[in-house]
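Need tokens for this chain, all 807 residues.
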Amino acid sequence: MSAMSIPPVSPSEFSADILRHLKHSLGKDDSHASLYDWRMSLSLALRDRVVDPWFESTRKTYEARGKRVYYLSMEFLIGRLIEDVAVNLGLDAVAEAALADLGQDYAAVVANEPDAALGNGGLGRLAACFMDSLSTLGIPAYGYGIRYEHGLFEQHFEDGAQRETAETWLSQRHAWEFERPEVSYPIDFGGHVFEENGKTIWRCTETVMASAYDTPVIGWQAQWANTLRLWAAKPTTAFDLASFNRGDYIAASAPEALARTISRVLYPDDTTDIGKELRLKQEYFFTSASIQDLLRRFLSEGGDLKELPDHVAIQLNDTHPAIAGPELVRLLMDEHGFDKEAAIRTARGCLAYTNHTLLPEALERWPEELFIRILPRHHQIIQMIEAAHLAETGSHVRILEHGEVKMGELAFVMAHHVNGVSALHSDLVKETVFADLHRDYPGRIINQTNGITPRRWLYSCNPPLRDLINDTIGTSWPSDLQQLDGLAAHAGDPAFLDAFQAAKDSNKARLSNWLKDHGGHALDPEAMFDVQIKRIHEYKRQLMNLLETVALWNEIRDNPNADWTPRVKIFGGKAAPGYVVAKQIIHLINDAAKVINADPATRDVLQIVYPENYNVSMAEILIPATDLSEQISTAGKEASGTGNMKFALNGAPTIGTLDGANVEIRDCVGADNFFLFGLTAAEVTARRAEPDYARRAIEASPRLARVLSQIDSGVFSPGDRGRYGDLVQGLWNHDYFLVTCDFDSYFDAQRQVDTAFADKAGWTRMAALNTARVGWFSSDRTISGYARDIWNAPSLIASRTSRKDVA
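Here are the structure tokens for all 807 residues:
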């Protein structure tokens, strides 16, 4: 198959396209158009140019009758799309010039686009990067997820505490999607199962409809486009007119309200029974719709379901869609007449599972009573799957145990491959959470280290560095990121290093201005921008970062005339609404910031910044401006991380543990360009076996004991001195994530950072070598590995099929 190309367009022609949409799609003329109108018109003009390659890709897929990849994910954190689409179409400069001709500021129009509230953190951003790479590589694919009306939540701070309000991204029209009212599937819940005339019947008590919305995903240089299909829940009967006419107006709209609840919010609080029920319904809702959709597509082409694994690859992104196995078995048995052995064998031939966590509590488990009540047929099928698994292997590992349905075990047993997402993580998966299943199914677990798309995470978000790279090694690197290796030869060139530092300085100035515009104050661009941005969780150890910051504050106050390296500590991230400890950590960071930032003795050399409502667009400003990347999770707990890759790619050395992909990043950039501290995964396990390990660590560290005493006594919460008592006592008595044990090592490593940063030329060289040596962490390389090792899914772009790293 030959690669596609789009016709060239001049700025004047593109201006005409924008004005056409302004008039005919928005109903405005240019003299009365708002910023929203200009943004929508630009988006639609860009979308027009995506449609032809999208249609052509679909035609080529049908003609090839090849294999399609179906990527099922609870999250797709796609961020803003204007720049993403413009860059991949090669029209970013044209769009900017066209808007300038119309008297509009391209940057302001882009910034007007809301982030699509379809994800939370790394899981969803990884899914978005993978969709970009699948299109860039020309591998036919659908992404399947939920079209959340409100997403996770919008984060605000009130007196330093996190407050959650609903995201409103869909209060305006979403320019990029195409509604598909003709694509709709019934999703059943509840009821009972019975046998009739030799056939199993599931008689449900509740049904909602899954309605499709498609967003085209264009790859680099528009050579291919795939589809992100999101499902919205709708009622079978939208409006009960009889109830309305009786005056019962609430009952009249109840079916719609109940259905829409399923696709309103990402990760509803599941600390209550009703929350657990909604979570389970959400997961089955989008998974069932996706399985029904891919079967319908396969059968429409005249496919034989016995050959389904030859044409369909289903990737489960974490355990959220693990119900896909039983659902596919159900459809094959109950709708298409397969016996149970053939149904299980066929389903397993299609399914693969990506594990993203070593935290046992994060491997979903549902109360069996709830599962039977909501999905009675699937409970029966899981019993069949478990029986077949036990008979095949003689294993003692059960899927149904202690009154729970274990979704991690279900996903593993029903997958032909299970992959971890970094070399260390994959080894630990074999040794810890799935050790027994690894013995039962040797060879099933493989590794596919995560990656990031360089189109968004360097080319688009970091224009100064992009331009320098283009001038230094040429312009073909966005589709072959390992070409960045060529930058290493320039790391000793003073002119190149000056230009590299100038790019960083420009990005730091942009961040400073952005913070000021968003209610903060301008930062000192000469200070080190020390950044930790990710969801707030105890294992990610934002708390340790804060404790070190307070310890540094104490040191500066004790020795005010010492030669301190100025630092700005920047945090970003949200805590789950029901995660009490994580929300306490956020509150403490903001309380400490209030005190430290106001201290005249230290404020010129130490500041804390925590902008609210961290999202993709904020990351695109923060990451290019970062001097030091904080990747400080407890060793053995971070599966991979992708933020660590983004920071390194944009020229930020890492301070981190040997956890997740940090191990591979350190190997690539070199130990001299990485600030290592802390216990290894094996040492973490050994330390936890020691009695009173946390208390002993604190007692051995006067610096840490002082900090904890300050927090406990209310130095940072004078109006509520007991606010952090439980948090501090947790460190003294439990500290499962070993903040106390790694604290001194972390503090010492930070002082090494101070010394290194003071050597400006040496630091810039270190930063440049990080950029030069992390080309391996492209999501194109990751997806090539999946295509080769798991999916057996070839590219349909001729220029890609000869590449060694693509199946």
